[in-house]
Amino acid sequence: MGNSDYVYPDRQSPHQVAVPPPQPFFKSFKNSLKETFFPDDPLRQFKNKPPSRKFLLGLQYFMPILEWGPRYSFEFLKSDIISGITIASLAIPQGISYAKLANLPPILGLYSSFIPPLIYAMMGSSRDLAVGTVAVASLLMGSMLGDEVNAAENPTLYLHLAFTATFFAGILQASLGLLRLGFIVDFLSHATIVGFMAGAATVVILQQLKGVLGLDHFTRSTDIISVLRSVFSQIHEWRWESAVLALFSSSSSSSPDTSELEERAESTVVWGFCIHLFVFFNSRADRHGHRRHCPRRRNSSGRSFAMLKQYHIDGNKEMVAIGTMNIVGSCFSCYLTTGPFSRSAVNVNAGCKTAMSNVVMALAVMFALLFLTPLFHYTPIVVLSAIIIAAMFGLIDYEATIHLWKVDKFDFMVCMGAYLGVVFASVEVGLVIAVAISVLRLLLFVARPRTFVLGNIPNSTIYRNVEQYPTTDSVPGILILEIDAPIYFANASYLRERLKSAGETSLQYVILHMTAVGNIDTSGISMLEEVKKTTDRRGLKLVFANPGSEVMKKLNKSKFIETIGQEWIYLTVGEAVEACHYKLHTCKPDSTSEEPQPWNKV
Amino acid sequence: MGNSDYVYPDRQSPHQVAVPPPQPFFKSFKNSLKETFFPDDPLRQFKNKPPSRKFLLGLQYFMPILEWGPRYSFEFLKSDIISGITIASLAIPQGISYAKLANLPPILGLYSSFIPPLIYAMMGSSRDLAVGTVAVASLLMGSMLGDEVNAAENPTLYLHLAFTATFFAGILQASLGLLRLGFIVDFLSHATIVGFMAGAATVVILQQLKGVLGLDHFTRSTDIISVLRSVFSQIHEWRWESAVLALFSSSSSSSPDTSELEERAESTVVWGFCIHLFVFFNSRADRHGHRRHCPRRRNSSGRSFAMLKQYHIDGNKEMVAIGTMNIVGSCFSCYLTTGPFSRSAVNVNAGCKTAMSNVVMALAVMFALLFLTPLFHYTPIVVLSAIIIAAMFGLIDYEATIHLWKVDKFDFMVCMGAYLGVVFASVEVGLVIAVAISVLRLLLFVARPRTFVLGNIPNSTIYRNVEQYPTTDSVPGILILEIDAPIYFANASYLRERLKSAGETSLQYVILHMTAVGNIDTSGISMLEEVKKTTDRRGLKLVFANPGSEVMKKLNKSKFIETIGQEWIYLTVGEAVEACHYKLHTCKPDSTSEEPQPWNKV
Fold first, then answer.
1. Is the Cβ of A553 closer than 8 Å to some Cβ of chain B?
2. Which of A175, A212, B56, B409 gets the most CB atoms within 10 Å of its CB?
């Protein structure tokens, strides 16, 4: 095989590009609906089973406890008790602290670690998820409800609002799951989550300045400017004892001591114990490096652990379980719960085997509720603040942010957008900014596709992007362009301009490499028709290489294949170039109907 | 070359996939900004020119009349006078009718065909655009302002609001153009426009039932239900004479006659003349088939004609011109104007040469204003209705709708969404529905990419989608998958599930064909890392074929190339298969570090 003018073995019969067989509209419609909503095919296991078996499978589908319950062994129980008690030791201080974040009575945090885990143990399909309240959701709830009702002035109404909000959050989660719309959460990218969590953590930490500095008055806004103004306008009220104590209790596991605590020695012991456990487990979870896998979304901590242990989690089903748990919980004085990643990581490290560990945790929390409730009256705010701050620092994943900057600047922008939005405006603004940037990126990808000029890789019939492969040779008289996105209304006119402006020199053929064009719509086809007219007028021949099945289907239906001529569509760029070469050297381009005319500028 | 086990000539040295040379961040950032906002490079002509020349070019850039004015000839003038008078004969009756649609005094319609064309003649770069008011914008203005102020009760305030709205519409258009954001209008697809225009035309026609049936009271809502209820609740008030006249004057070019008109004979003559011209030119424009190319967007009629005559139109610059024309117009009692496609088509057919035809039209309209104004007091509503209905039927492009159904069901949905939204709710609702469906389609394309299984085309090293090419042979022991979209956060978890569930049989290699993967973000890279782990655990080797430059760059930065091994990235599927075949037949897969393990289900 020579370099420039080798003869292709079967030039006279290049491969045909196939138009896929037509599919009835409703069949293809059904298929695409199925791909959109049931990509994981959750009903596969029900196929070809007798009705009684189907009923049992259906029950097990919604109540996985029926599946693993009968196989439950004493060995499992031992592991689950250990892990259950471990996560309870996290759930108690965190529950109380996070309830404070939501401006709710601390005891609600414990209720929320009691009822929902029991529901999840029956309905959840993850074996590792530890159920409980989370800081960011608590903060969100507190700030959103605080806009409506002042918790201090009207505590009963505030409480009722909190339960109603939880109830409807549950309804929303369960319906998204039932309607198989869980994929909507895919639109929260990894970068969004990193930025959002770090921003929320920053806001939460700033809020704790009230407790840390022992301030009585504090702004109700969450943005950094209001908070700092509020803090620095009261410099004379700062209590250094309180700050030192907070620093001490958040950085070590020693027992705390405040002026309030002095009144009751018992609570000091309880709090000391809790913080000890908290810091211990937090650092342990860190050591195992779990925090590096930042949770993608609400129901993804379950999935991440499922991957470790290799079993399958259906995200939509998990959303139904978590939604039900919130619906039921809201009737029992619980507020918003989910499966926090950090606590689940502790659960896995402590060796949990099944969701029974949640039941054990619930029982431990119940024990705390029965016997330790009197102590909760004296909640030492400074210690709660310290607990929260220690937990929050774990959410600020600056290494992930550096990684984003290195690998993908756009993702970094998304992350910083979310962070700055949350810190300088509000949680909602941050979320909206991040989602808007992310979606804008998708739209820009489609609206501004790149067109590459391809060249021949020496001694082969392979044609590649000349920018990526600088050693390629250009083919004289032939311009080969690759389009790297679907051709849709959003980019049709942009591509038309690109294709028109390309190659102002004396050309004979323009080959469009279509492999990466996944789809085309009617605007795209109109654009190609215009390009065809322009190239005709300039005396150029338009040649297509390897259009995909969707594109061929559409081109066929719109009769554009007849316009361009089936013989000008080739399977590979190599074959197209070969055919052009042959025509170029043996005869004029066969444009009997459309004579090539010189392109006169008006 | 045999079929199953031929030997590739240079198997030992397959082509390397290149990592593109790293670009400084700000350079690539600048490039992508330029591609997004200046894809047409409007400043190209300013490069390497002396400052005085630059200044002249800059003036000509904003005032194209300085460019073509000096070259203006008497021949041009003759053509422009003919076409100018022709479009004036359209502008007068349409101006009056459309002003009625906006609930404005008819004379404003004439003002709007006087001042703005003069501005456009100086600033516009299209030689064919005829400036004037359009029905849909007038209707929109009427319905939106009507929500705020009742035109009958408070005419002065209504007028002021109309001018203010025009002013701000002009500011918006000019700023979008100046900020090079004209591409935003690309997001209105062809299908959206077809449905939206048909819906708006239906609404306008329904509104004319008031005039056609001679009703005194009429609903102020625009949706079909309110209108029909209003019409049929007043059956006893219908005036058949009026309806017959309307039918007659809209379907033929004979002179109209109404009870109101009888009072003044002159106006009958004027109106008859106008309708005659209107119907004549309307049918003429139809005959030339211009209406089939439905205007894509405001500034696209200019571009379509520019393509016919082969000169370049900068859409953003046109937006500046049209915006300025509205800003200036609003100060001279003009309301919203643009370049309507139908009138521009008439302009082209009448042989216009430059924007001077707009000046001629403006002068003709001024003549009408000076001498025919007394007649406008007796505006025969039924005739106006007939004019509007005749123009509106031209906007209902049912053939385009059938074409959409045949070629692309999704585009058809977009079109019907816009139509039904406009007809059953309001203009805004229709627009929002259509844009939402269009953008949803883009997002779904990215969120639910397709993965194809590739097979070998007999007697070649070409690998293609087995569904499109049923004659392909599968390669034993190797699964070849093609991904046809960029790998972004929105599809990363979907693709992970697809890749995991693919090929449950005994495989040795999974080849991912990446040509169509235009880009990847950090979520996508995490997904690939997970897939790599899963395949390792199942004892499979993950092989990449032809990742593009962006993908290679990201994979390199995130060190994923080291994870997968540079030697497992091939330039073509053929080379990848060949390498796998060789390893498969001569030795075990070289997994020294990661031993293949049987995949045990837990």
1. no
2. A212
